[in-house]
Structures are given as structure tokens and as C-alpha cells.
Fold:
Amino acid sequence: MPENLLKGKKGIITGALDENSIAWHTALKAKEQGAKFVLTNAPIAMRMGAIQDLADECGTIVIPADATSVEDIEKLYDEAKEYLGGNFDFLLHSIGMSPNVRKGRSYGDLNYDWVQKSYDVSAVSFHKMLQVAEKKDVLNEWASVIALSYIAAERAFPFYSDMSEAKAILESIARNYGLRYGKNKNVRVNTISQSPTKTVAGSGIGGFDDFFDFAALASPLGNASAESCAEYIVTMFSDFTRMVTMQNLFHDGGYSTTGITQELIDAYVASKK
Ligand SMILES: NC(=O)c1ccc[n+]([C@@H]2O[C@H](COP(=O)([O-])OP(=O)(O)OC[C@H]3O[C@@H](n4cnc5c(N)ncnc54)[C@H](O)[C@@H]3O)[C@@H](O)[C@H]2O)c1
Structure:
């Protein structure tokens, strides 16, 4: 295991809801690698209590912020900067939610007010975090900003509904803000496209458990866990990946470039018997 990959680095980690969250694992890995950071989540998630336990374990604080509110993000950056004693080297956007998915509305029967909400929470909030960071000039040179995506941004899946478009917007924001921020201040912006993962957000998708098993069979390395995703995120926050920007990086055990695996064919043949 590498040591102190993030020594001296400061940042903000959004989206740790419970011990399954990708952000939760990221906080533990970032702490292990010597980073200092604050945690944040929507005020409503705060009531569930678990995030305070993580903060205690990481020796840090939680600053509530709704990522769709520019005012909340401004306050988050001000308070985090004061607590950490300086600007940030990394930001993690680990936020996703679709009311249509959550309430079981099919793709042919979307509630358009909820579609706006899905896009705002899951994608536009990433732009807001970047824009407020740039306006307040709170990111250091070579800072690394990561958001989490899913392959349904680029390929059609029957169950991902309006989250597919939300993720497509998210990935586009990473490219376009990456261009701008790279030129302005050598800040890099990327998305990581993660395997299906058993979290609150993941399990909210219809038929998740079956698809999780299918994806494992369709990936030469199997599904990437939340913990391994956290390790990849930490690598992307480190100085070893300084020239990577404006990319959508697959962290999926090889799923995205696999046509079919023998295991899937065998499972299909067995199911016909
Ligand atoms: N779980 C999967 O299968 C999977 C796969 C690929 C990508 N992702 C993405 O990973 C990210 C993290 O999700 P997760 O799987 O760890 O699930 P999770 O449910 O643990 O995390 C989602 C987080 O978003 C937060 N959130 C929702 N609305 C918010 C708001 N308005 N302001 C601030 N925070 C808000 C929630 O409180 C929660 O902490 C999401 O972007 C998700 O789409 C997940």
C-alpha cells in the first residue's frame, strides 16, 4: 500500500450518507493517506446521524450544504477554508438523486418537475460547485475535482431513466469546466464511471440486484467495489495523476469494453435448460 499519497492536501468530500457510500470509503482512504478535509451532505441527510460518526473517526467536521443551493456552497467553502486553514487541493462530488427513479416513474411517464430536480441535484450542482470555487478562488493550482458517473451516460439502459441524461450532463460539465479551469489555474476536472455498487443511491434503481449480478458476470475483473473506487479517487487526487483532465474514467472491472463473457453465455445456456 502506498503511504501519505495526500500528505499536506486539503479538500471537501460530499455525499457520505452511510458506511456503504462511495464518499464514506473515500473519506477513510483520504484520511489514511494523510489528507485533511471536511465532510458535507444535504441538511436532510444530517438527520440520519451516521455522517457525524464518520467525522469523529476522521477527526473532522460536517458542514451541511444542499448542493443545489449556491448560497449553501458559498457558506460551505467559507467555513471549510476557515477550518482547514487554507484553500483546497481536491473536491469530491458524490451526489445523485432522481425523484422519478425513487418514486418508480417509468421513462415513458416522467414527471418533468422531477426531471429538473434530477438534473439539478445530480449534474448542475457539479457546475455550481465549480463555478463558486472559481469565483471565490478557493482551489489551489493543480487541484483535482472528481464527480461520479455511470455508463448509462453514454449507452442505453432500460432502468436508469432520467439519471442517464443527468450523468451525460455531468460528464459534459467535467469536459467544459476542465477546459476553462485548466487554462485559468491548472485545475483538473474528471468524472469516474463506476460499476454498480450496493449503496442507497444504487439500490434505488429498479432491478438493481439482478443487474449487479449480471454486471459482475460481464466484467472480466468483476464489479469494482466502493472501497476500490475510493482508492482510485485518492489516486486521482494525488500528484501522480497531474496531467489527467477532462476525462470520463471507467472504473468498472472492464465492463465498458467487454462485448460478452463466456460466463454470461454459460449462465444464459443454463437458464434455458
Ligand atoms: N451506487 C452505484 O451503483 C453507482 C454507480 C455509478 C455511479 N454512482 C454515483 O456515485 C455517487 C455517490 O452515490 P453512492 O452510490 O455512494 O450512493 P449514496 O446514496 O450513498 O450517496 C448519494 C449521496 O447524495 C447525497 N445528496 C442527495 N441530494 C443532495 C443534495 N441536494 N445536496 C447534497 N447532497 C445530496 C445523499 O445525501 C447521499 O449522501 C452518485 O453520483 C451516484 O450516482 C453510483
Summary: The two ends are 46 Å apart (CA to CA). The chain has one domain: 10-208+221-258.
